[in-house]
Amino acid sequence: MRVLIFFILNLVIITGRLQAQSGQSLVLNGCTDYLEIQEDDALDFGEALSIECWIRPNCTDGNKIILGKEWCMGQFAYYLSVVGGRIRWSFQERGGCNPAHYFDSQDIVIEPDIFTHVAVSHSLTDLKIFINGDQIDLDGSNAVFSSIHNSTEPLRLGAYKNIDESISNFYSGLIDELRIWNIELTEDIVRSRYNSELSGNEEGLGAYYQMNGTDIGENLIIPNTATVNPRLVAITTGFSVSSPYCIIPNNYNDAQLLEETMISICGQEDRILTINENLNYKNILWSTTETTESITVSEDGDYSVSAETELCKMLEWNFSIFSDEQTITIDTSVCEGNTIIFRGEQIGANESRTFTISSLTGCDSTIIINVNQLEKIDLVID
């Protein structure tokens, strides 16, 4: 047997979603955030109701509500949720909750931190769910198929209203390109446009939310960009000081707690470090055991900070503190064609680069990066 083994260092794998998305996505924190769209016939079941959206949950455990128009006190219509990685469509014909009727995807189809397109089409005779344009098999053991009650409740994004009117089952993560139709969708229709933005005047389109908001917290409003029913804006109802909000997904993915990994306190007795003020924080923990957004450091050494920004969304940052002028040499190796990135610059095989870390006190330090090229190794195993 001949086995060829490559040793690869610093390999960066970039995964992209299929979505043709040129703007922002809505971020909900999984604890307080939800939006409401006022009750309207465009959100109710006539001869058909279809809903599409892109979701990127931070976690998939429990029953996380993507959207719902329900209240078990006679006003339960439907909700769409993620339950342990499966998609659930729950509905009632008479507005009550006993017994519960829902269809789940047979398989786990939703993964954390990955954008997935979900479409549900419920007609008088059929229910279909599509994942990334493909119709999937459903588990209907907990449902009896029927039409859907027309509820007077608003449509909620990201939360569930309980019998006692409390709110729970919050969704944590990103939602984008929400489309609500009063027509039945087929697999061909979903496939033909789920990866494209709409013009807003498509036949049967009752509401269209592209999640391009300009404010945060209680002031965030998401417009309906369908040409019909422009009054159906999504208004923030549950919020914190700095959420919900809208963000370009790549910026959400690339968020950093601090700007530097090497921090000088040369010529200073100490230095105050503050993590990224543009992010929201549920929990913060420094390696010094402090839990505040800022700490004061005065000793050389390696440090770290971790923070939960939204439910299940964890960020970590490792950094070093040094107090004297230093010249640090780092030797590393990569395979041919690969690079490393340091302070935003790419360094390829057989290259060297020198960086200066400036200090306000004039105690500048130097870092030298030497990148060597690894050789391929052929191993023959008999």
Explain what you see.
The chain is mainly beta and 382 residues long. The chain has helices at residues 187-193, 249-253; strands at 2-5, 25-29, 34-37, 48-57, 63-69, 78-83, 86-91, 102-105, 116-123, 127-131, 134-135, 138-142, 155-157, 160-161, 167-168, 172-181, 205-209, 221-222, 234-238, 245-247, 262-264, 271-274, 283-286, 294-297, 301-310, 313-322, 327-334, 339-342, 345-348, 351-357, 365-373, 377-380. It is built from 2 helices and 32 strands. Strands 12-8-7-6-5-13-3-19-18 form a 9-stranded antiparallel sheet, with no helix packed on it. Strands 2, 4, 9, 10, 11, 16, 17 and 20 form an 8-stranded antiparallel sheet that branches. A 4-stranded mixed sheet has the order 21-26-25-23, with no helix packed on it. The protein is 3% helix and 44% strand.
Looking at the structure, the CATH topology of the largest domain is: Jelly Rolls
Give a quick account of the main beta sheet: strands, pairing sense, barrel closure.
9 strands, antiparallel
CATH class of the largest domain: Mainly Beta
Helix fraction by DSSP (H/I, runs of at least 4): under 10%
CATH architectural type of the largest domain: Sandwich
Number of strands: 32
Mean pLDDT: 89
